[in-house]
Design brief:
Layout (H helix, E strand, L loop, with lengths): L2 H40 L2 H16 L4 E2 L4 H15 L9 E6 L6 E3 L4 E5 H6 L3 H16 L2 H20 L5 H10 L8 H19 L3 H10 L16 H9 L2
Parallel strand pairs: 2-4
Antiparallel strand pairs: 1-2, 3-4
Amino acid sequence: MTINDNRTWLTIILVALLTIAVSVYQFFVVGVPYLSEQIASALPAKAYEYVDEAALKSLSDSDFKPSKLSDERQNEIKALFTRLTENLDTERQFQLKFKSWEEKPNAFAFANGTIVMTDKMIELAENDQEIEAILLHEIGHVTHNHVMENLVGMSVVSVTVSLIIGDISALSDILVQGATFGISLNYSRDAELEADHYASEKLTEIYGNTEAIVSIFSKLKEFEDDSQSWLSTHPDLDDRIQIMQQH
């Protein structure tokens, strides 16, 4: 085999590898989000209910403990939450849960509309408007179906990788973990901006400005570098604050 033949085969191999790499990249960047959106929108309501039930059970078995807030304060915040969700045109069944967590301020949503706020998040808020801002951000994730789309996407990636490497023994565990821990969800930048926009729009309708969400996000910057904080799943905070200030 001549040197030219070797170069020809090397070129063919490199082109083939590049083609495979581009195809894989396109699948994960374009294909997975598209499949996730289509699958999530086609899932029955029972699937959403199951995910929330499983998530809450897992949460109870974790470091999240019953809230130490008084019944009166919980009822006050639930009343705020009801006003924010009662007229929404959605199949999701919104409910608000309170938990005590010894780490950092946290709030997150599950697929069917269950939203969890920790005592420390409520303590961090200076007023009820800032609490509403956090609630609206999480409601935005549910309304735009980011939660289920993300869970489906995680499952699609897990299935794909398991099939590629030929190890499906832990597949069920991967899917269950992906479906039950909303706290660990990593939303895309676009999803975060969409949830921010939703909250900003609603706050503007109610109060005529976005000061509450800018204020509470600024307070949360203190915990930005903590891997277990609410901000660990909510990147690019400075840019997002600037966008909301310009809203």
